[in-house]
Write a structure and sequence with these properties.
This protein has twelve helices and no strands. The chain is mainly alpha-helical.
């Protein structure tokens, strides 16, 4: 598995799409979640209405709110980016017909996919670290520009928030990896995954989230679990949560963590089962 890990690490590092995807995610976080919010709350446009005054909402971009700000982008753009990276890791092997060449070299199928799993876990870890560092740097700069005292969250909260973010990104990366193994097509894996994230979880969840039967189904989906985990790291002050437009979580943070953990293990198990049993040349 070590050889497979080295090979996948090299491929991931040289895959231009991965760097572009990480750049998009960083740009989204810094430009939209920090710079744009700062200017909107610092200079509210005419007709701006909110239950919470802009002078309070602007604290979203300051260091004490690094954790909820980072987590707020993971369920949408973060999920999409990591899903695509996971799908590229496995589906591209079928698209270029390299999977047969790899298996001819005598590594077992479990070792091949195991190397990909470890590489994707490390990739999601690095992306999580980069996001937190970028968010901390942006928030410290904006606090300095605004003349505010900079106070990062407690170390224990940062560790918990970092772990939660890594789990969220890991689940969606594993989902993309699984779709790539199942569909054996980059387009199908990415298209199906993005449709699920943006249509099923985001659109249907928001439009029909209060419908009885739909609401119960949503409680078992990864996106709902992410929302539950995110709510365990509220903005400071808590009034910001009401003004940010987010609805109440359908499940608790603890249940959210358990749900995400189950999905992560399920995606890995499905990938191993399908890859080990199916004829890769069919």
């Amino acid at each position: 598995m070590i050889a497979s890990l080295r090979a996948d690490t090299l491929k991931a590092r040289k895959r231009t799409a991965n760097w572009i995807l990480v750049g998009i995610l960083l740009a989204w976080l810094i430009l939209l979640s920090y710079v744009l919010d700062y200017f909107i709350f610092k200079h509210p446009p005419p007709g701006f209405r909110s239950e919470v005054p802009p002078s309070v909402l602007i604290r979203i971009v300051f260091p004490e709110n690094v954790i909820p700000t980072v987590l707020s982008v993971l369920g949408t753009i973060g999920a999409a980016v990591m899903l695509i990276m996971g799908a590229l890791s496995t589906a591209s092997e079928y698209g270029w017909s390299t999977v047969q060449t790899i298996l001819v070299q005598k590594p077992g199928r479990g070792a091949v996919l195991g190397g990909k799993i470890v590489n994707l876990a490390l990739t999601s870890l690095i992306v999580t670290l980069v996001l937190f560092l970028a968010a901390a740097a942006a928030s410290l700069v904006l606090a300095g520009v605004d003349g505010r005292a900079a106070q990062l969250p407690a170390a224990s909260d940062l560790v918990r928030g970092f772990g939660a973010a890594w789990l969220v990104l890991g689940v969606y990366t594993a989902l993309g990896m699984t779709l790539g193994v199942v569909f054996r097509s980059t387009a199908a894996a990415i298209g199906g995954g993005l449709t699920y994230v943006f249509v099923v979880e985001t659109v249907i969840g928001r439009l029909l989230g209060n419908t009885g039967g739909i609401k119960e189904i949503l409680k078992f989906l990864p996106g709902t679990a992410v929302h539950g985990v995110t709510e365990t790291f509220p903005f400071s002050p808590t009034a910001i949560s009401r003004g940010s437009g987010g609805g109440p979580a359908l499940i608790s943070g603890t249940r959210g963590l358990i749900t995400l953990g189950v999905y992560l293990l399920a995606f890995i198990a499905i990938s191993l089962l399908v890859f080990s049993r199916r004829d890769v040349g069919a």
